[in-house]
User: What shape does this take?
Amino acid sequence: MMILITLFCGILFGVGLALSQMTNPAVVLGFLDIFGNWNPSLIFVMGSAIVVGVISYAIKNGRQAPWLAKNWSVPTHTHIDAKLVIGSALFGIGWGLSGYCPGPGLTALVNNPQEGFYFIGAVIIGSGIFYIQNKRLAKA
Amino acid sequence: MTDILYPILGGLCIGLSASIYLLATGKIMGISGLLSQALFGPPGMNTKWLPLIFLVGTVVGGASYGVLTHQTVPFPDPRSPLLLITSGLLVGYGTRLGSGCTSGHGVCGISRGSIRSLTATAIFMVTAILTVMITK
Assistant: This one.
């Protein structure tokens, strides 16, 4: 059951990216180009996704546990640290360079493979660098 | 009307996906996190294979682009590998250091009113907009 639901959610997410054209970096760059020839359509993507999300958190808050797991594993900390700020700033620069964030980058493996392989390959290396660095810090 | 219909439909799918995932598994749906769990997570069905199954679904669903939509903007011609690699390294490292990306912080985090996610989203939107302004 868990496998089916996970697969279904993954496909639904990919279809959402496709329908909204977020899979196309040219559309994303047009959305980020607010001082140029701005294409605001992606505001509606985020807006409608958040409306659905807010409803789901209202449902979640009325339930003791998720359907298929024992506990909720939603982060609870509220502290804003340098890691959050610097990491998000770097992510934004990377997103603005190519128009790919992680989800659309994955779909590019099929839609525009030549771009997708370079991008996702580098995302994996970038996450790997963080993983190794984090492991070293934990040991020290 | 159709120029906002598809984005709204797409956003509803993304929101529904995040909601079903949350209510079923109890977890936040964030693509950068799922990717890193699939690659570097501890072994086990729930920690390695389920994230991978989600991501495979995303690739399959994303491939429906062009079949489902009336494409209004052409894809860019393949761009320089150097640009894509630089971008990917920053996205990979930055999303791990900052604990999330557009899905985890931008959609899920804002939906639950997380102050960390609101901050992260504001920061990555600003640096992305500035990057486009400078590089265009």
Q: What stands out?
A: Chain B has a mean pLDDT of 92. Chain B has six helices and no strands. The first helix of chain B runs from residue 2 to 25. Chain B touches chain A through 107 residues (CB under 8 Å).
